[in-house]
Amino acid sequence: MEITEKDIINFLKHRGKPVYFKMLQRKLGVPKSEKKVLRKILKKLQKKRIIRYEKGKYLLTEWKQKEEGLIEGRVEAHPSGYGFLIIGDEVEDLFIPPPEMRYLFDGDIVLARAVKRRKKDEAKIVKVLERAIKTAVGRYYKDKTGHYVLLSDTVIPHKIYINKKEAKKYRLEPETYVVVEITQYPAPKVRGRGRILKVLGKTKNTLTVAEIIARKYNLPTEHSKEAIEEAEKLPSTVRITKNRKDLTDQICFTIDPESARDHDDAVAIEKEGDKYRLYVHIADVSHYVKEGSAIDKEAFERGNTYYLPERALHMLPERLAAELCSLRPNEKKYAFTCEMLINKTGKVVDFDIYESVIVSKAKLSYDEALRLIVGDPALEEKYPYVVKPLRYMEELAKILMKAKEKRGSIDFDMPESQILFTETGDPYDVVPYERHLAHRIIEEFMIIANETVARFMFEKNYPFIYRTHEEPDLDKVIKFVDLVAGLGYEVSYPEKITPKFIQKILEKVAGTPEETLVRFMALRTMKQAKYTVENIGHFGLASDCYTHFTSPIRRYADINVHRMLKKAIKGKFTKNDLQRLPEKLDLIAKQCSKMERVADDAERDALDMLKLRILSNHIGEEFEGIITGVVSFGMFVELQRYLIEGLVPINTLPYHFKYDEINQRLISDKKIFRLGDRIKVRIERVDEDLKKLDLSYVE
Asked: EC class of this enzyme (predicted)?
């Protein structure tokens, strides 16, 4: 019998006291020949800090911590200098005062003791178990205390001192951005120390931001040697075999952003009377990425591709992401196809899911697709064979949109922005990113394919990964309704929370000055969508069954959805699979959900940094903004031109203002500021490293 980590943990829990190695070996039935394997697993558990080895015996770490009254938690730093110890969902966080935070970084795992205080219990840090930051980006400075790097974007800035010789060696000038490795962490009476790994220059451009973000979020910037070697060995020949449908003659094509290189999906359509036969072809990544391979293990750890400005940190090695799997035009490619027959009300009346071989006949950008739909003679001459299919696609997409709207699907459709760069990667402007009909066509086709696949697996009751979205909390919905009522709209409280209820409110504000704010607040009311092995439906889409099937080049969840689908259509689920897979898929779902949050935060962070770089050249200038938050110390205003929030401190406002928390307002005798108000502000100060934008109100 193969011994697992779980077996050891369960035995120790059941035993309830420390044990010697020999007893552990005997009780678990490990033969002498497997002693080395057992020791290896025990070392792994020690590394993970799940067990400890003391006085010749093994014990669970939690026993020791309970005995000493210690709590393990994660540090969450606040820019103001204090922090919180995050212990768990069911336990209240502990306050970490600024003196303790001087030696801690956001994300550190620590052992602490709760100390009673009059207002709130505080955490007294006993030991740092794991440092969140090993390398970081910062600016080099020199003063009477020595040569140091002031770390950028570590929430609370830390000074990491470097050797004078290193500063000379790299000919560092003040304010130069560098990558530093921390060799000694700050502690009482001990300076933080480090060594320079890389010099990035004096400008905060795409290169600098990518380095800061990659280190802040621990994003891998390179693939392992093993993964690259595996990718290089994969054959490039595509063969049409008996288990694959030959669709190489079909008129299918891709529609993607102009700069895209990883083409996950291609589409094709035929009209049959008043019905439409839609083909959604997805890159067959699971054909190449085998379970347990180095590529697969890396993809699991990454969870998805990270799209930073002007740079993508791919989930898969370049050869797979941009070559073998990418559905490039005029090349034979392995695909996984969802073929659907859809009637005039948007209902799928028949479908088939199968492996195929396709040849994409064109690579269109969204703008090109739109121009072909509305009529562009030059493009029609270049792509004559896609004009008719695109017109059919427009018809079908409108039918699907109408069906989705009828069932209550919520369209948040928030404004998006795009940063423009010089050839050297320096940001110089922000422009609106327009989503139009061509985007909606692809979006609708991907949604209907995802639903069809999910429903098929749900009805078969096979182990699977669903994309789920729970309904929002009633308290949050009531606050949202109060906010909309406060803006002057007639709204009632819901008897039952449904997507249709939220949709109706958004319809009320459509085309009004408050529309963007109300959409934004509605989005804040929602819970985050995630991956789960239980199907609980998707609230935002008003869908009873949903998954992610359409982007396996950039999402690990989709690769596993493909694997389960293949087992289903080939009848290869075993009894062992049905017992074993739910637990394994649950682990994958949790990892993918976690890394998706990391990707969202990292991508948002990177955009904000570059926007602040641009705004540092506009200090003193005035802009239109909308109030997106009202707090006791001021109001947050989003600059409409740049889609970034800044703070107008309450003490900089004319007159004396009081904070009305219930109605989210600042009130004075002469003026009232409320959520959604449009005001003019001036940029007073930009701190790129602390990510702060200070604004003042212009009367």
From this structure: hydrolase
| Both tokens assigned to 15 | 């035993």
Q: Same structural domain for residues 60 and 90?
A: no
Q: Which residues of the chain have pLDDT under 50?
A: none
Put simply, whether the predicted model's pTM sits higher than 0.85 gets the answer no
Same-domain status, 423 and 381: yes
| Cβ contacts of 649 within 8 Å, gap of 6 or more | 633, 634, 694
Q: What is the amino acid identity at position 300?
A: F
pLDDT of residue 65: 60
265/327 Cα distance (integer angstroms): 7
- Residue 513: what residue type? P
171, 202, 233 — which closes off a domain?
202
Q: Are 522 and 505 in contact (CB under 8 A)?
A: yes
Do 230 and 245 touch, CB atoms closer than 8 A? Answer: no
Tally of domains in the chain: 6
Extract the tokens encoding 245: 């449908």
Residues 559 and 690 both lie in one domain: no
Bridge pairing between strands 634-639 and 644-649 = antiparallel
Residue 251 lies in a domain: yes
461, 385: one domain: yes
Residues 181 and 249 placed together within one structural domain of the fold: no
DSSP string, 78-126: -TTS-EEEE-BTTBPPEEE-HHHHTT--TT-EEEEEEE--SSS-EEEEE
* Phi-psi domain of 88 (left: phi exceeds 0; alpha: psi -120 through 50; beta: other): left
- Please say which residue of 79, 109, 130 terminates a domain: 130
Verify that 283 and 154 share a domain, yes or no: no
Helix and strand totals (H; E) in the chain:
19, 32
What's at 284, amino acid-wise?
D
Asked whether residue 300 falls in the same domain as residue 423, the answer is yes
Residue 215 resides in a domain: no
The model's pLDDT over 356-398, given as tens digits with 9 standing for 90+, comes to 999 999 999 999 999 999 999 999 999 999 999 999 999 999 9
Residues near 80 by beta carbon (within 8 Å), at least 6 away in sequence: none
Q: Which domain holds residue 41?
A: 5-65
**Six token digits for residue 567:** 């087992």
Six-digit token string for 588:
């994958």
Cα separations in angstroms, 295 against 60, 214, 283, 301, 379: 34, 20, 16, 10, 40
